[in-house]
Amino acid sequence: MDSERNARAYERKGSHLLLLARRRDRLELVTAEARALGAAEVEVHQADVTRDGDVAHAVAGLQVRGIGLDIVYTNVGFGVAGPMQSLTVADYQRQFDTNVVGLLRTDNTGVLHADAPDPVPAWLRVTTDKAVREIVDAVERGRPEVVVTGHAILLVFLSRQAPRLLRFILMRAHRGRPEPKSASGGDA
Q1: Residue 131 dihedral angles phi and psi, to the nearest 5°
Q2: pTM of the entire structure?
Q3: At CA 74, angle to CA 69 and CA 80, rounded to 5?
Q4: How does pLDDT run across 55-98, given as a tens digit for each residue?
Q5: Residues near 78 by Cβ (< 8 Å), separated by ≥ 6?
Q6: With left for phi above 0 and alpha for psi between -120 and 50, is residue 72 left, alpha or beta?
Q7: Which among 4, 11, 105 is positioned nearest to 53, based on CA atoms?
Q8: Is 127 buried (19+), middle (13-18) or exposed (0-12) by CB count in 10 A?
Q9: Where is pLDDT greater, at 38 or 141?
Q10: Weakest-pLDDT range from 57-61, 107-111, 121-125, 179-183
Q11: Alpha carbon distance 18, 23 (integer Å)
Q12: Could you say which DSSP state residue 96 is in?
């Protein structure tokens, strides 16, 4: 996990860490490693960004003691994957609640900053100006759709020219990444 790697980097520097995760076993493992690597202080809270108050409670505990947060890493989120006919609105709602509402819950604690680096790799991004130009141009030409980003253009090309290859790649990618369980389904 990227968040664990980030924590380890700060542990080696002797930083004070506040670690939050859904799974208690992951927290205990990372905490033990943090102490072994020399972290000055490690505080852990079991928290789920899909539950109101979990993140805010942990941050409030620090603030009461006069401790602020300098850096916040979030590593929440997942993508819904699978055959369209097997997916439900609830699947997408769970994804939205985790990826969007969960981040908003973290941001509403007042710990995120507007100057945080963009976690999206540069090769996946396109500038707003370029996107606007391409969309306006497509509308003026009467095109019913336009694909703007390079990776999306590649996916469209593969879906049209090599659909079996694309399906193979996507199925392999899906098998390699377990989806979290629903909130009612256990230790998600």
Answers
A1: -60, -45
A2: 0.50
A3: 160
A4: 888 888 888 888 777 777 666 777 888 888 888 999 999 888 88
A5: 95, 98, 99, 177, 179, 180
A6: beta
A7: 105
A8: exposed
A9: 141
A10: 179-183
A11: 15
A12: H
Tell me which residue of 4, 9, 69, 3 sits closest to 39, measured CA to CA: 9
List the structure tokens of 74.
């979030």
DSSP 99: I
Residue 115 pLDDT greater than 50, yes or no: no
Q: Which two tokens stand for residue 38?
A: 């020399």
Give, in words, the CATH class of 2-119: alpha beta
CA proximity to 176, closest of 89, 96, 78: 78
| Angstrom distance (rounded) from CA 67 to CA 23 | 25
* Cα angle: 84, vertex 135, 143; to 5 degrees: 75
Kindly report the CA angle at 180 between 176 and 183, in degrees rounded to 5? 170
Whether the CA torsion 121, 123, 127, 128 is positive or negative: it is negative
Q: Are 16 and 7 in contact (CB under 8 A)?
A: no
Q: Pinpoint the residues of the chain covered by CATH 3.40.50.720.
A: 2-119
Sign of CA dihedral 182, 31, 12, 112: positive
**Residue 181: pLDDT band with limits 50, 70, 90:** low
